[in-house]
Amino acid sequence: MLAELKSFVYGTRVWHAVFKNRGELRHWELRKLSIVKWYRGEGSCLFPCPDAEAKINDFDEQTNALLTFIAVETKHASYLKDLCLKKESFRGARVADVGSGPFPTLLVFEGCERYCIDHLMESYRKMGYPISRFEPELRFIAAKSESIPVPDGYFDAVISRNALDHVDDFDATAREIRRILRPSGILHILVNYHRPTSTEPHVLNDEVIRGSFGSLGVRKVSEAADSWGFEGGKTVLWSNAPEAILTNTSETALVVAVQS
Fold first, then answer.
1. Distance between CA 156 and CA 152 in Å, rounded?
2. pLDDT digits (tens, 9 = 90+) for 112-166
3. What is the pLDDT of residues 161-218, one digit of tens each?
4. How many CA atoms lie within 13 A of 90 on its CB side?
5. CA dihedral angle for residue 129, residue 121, residue 84, residue 232, rounded to 10 degrees
């Protein structure tokens, strides 16, 4: 009964308009504080604490910590590993990351035009995330996934990692992704299936994903149980990349090239 009540509440407009955003920003505030502690050597944050050589020291401590973490994460290429992609996968293409969060996630991809899209982008800036320092290399769009201010078919590829269960309206988001992706473009998404949470209100499954993106020819590439902290859930990678350019995903080497 309690689970059903939570599911109902998390799906309401009031929750989405007020409390969900607060929860998201609280998460990123805590992440920022943990990164500062990591920079000081007071605790790990995904990666071992940086040594003196790895630390950036040109700015205030918070900015130094965040820039150091971004440099370490980009070098580690966790984004590539999670999505089973290579740095050259989108060479020559215009690529969107829907629900990117405050980090310049697309830095790991080379030779492409890169857009990070997140409706809380301006809040991340105010929070102290050094977004402006990457703007010569990436473009950041502050927009909801349900309404992205670009023309139809603007992107050659759309990717998303652990974001589509966070949106306000999943169906509207799916329609918008189909709109902004050019005909025969690449869709590559890592999606979590789980019970509703305060910031991840959507119950997604194979049927929902096929119903939303089946027209784009997506198929399940891989899946893992109990990952991303969702006990009893799944993390599933979907893509419409041609088989000819896929490699062994168990070795995290899925290549997604944009066809001309």
1. 11
2. 999 999 999 999 999 999 999 999 899 999 999 999 999 999 999 999 999 999 9
3. 999 999 999 999 999 999 999 999 999 999 999 988 899 999 999 999 999 999 999 9
4. 27
5. 100
The 3-class SS string of the chain reads CHHHHHHHHHCCHHHHHHHHHHHHHHHHHHHHHHHHHHHHCCCCECECCCCCCCCCCCCCHHHHHHHHHHHHHHHHCHHHHHHCCCCCCCCCCEEEEECCCCCCHHHHCCCCEEEEECCCHHHHHHHCCCHHHHCCCCEEECCCCCCCCCCCCCEEEEEEECCCCCCCCHHHHHHHHHHHEEEEEEEEEEEEECCCCCCCCCCCCHHHHHHHHHHHCCEEEEEEECCCCCCCCEEEEEECCCHHHCCCHHHCCCCCCCCC
The structure tokens listed for 71 are 């440099």
Burial class (CB in 10 A: 0-12, 13-18, 19+), 86: buried
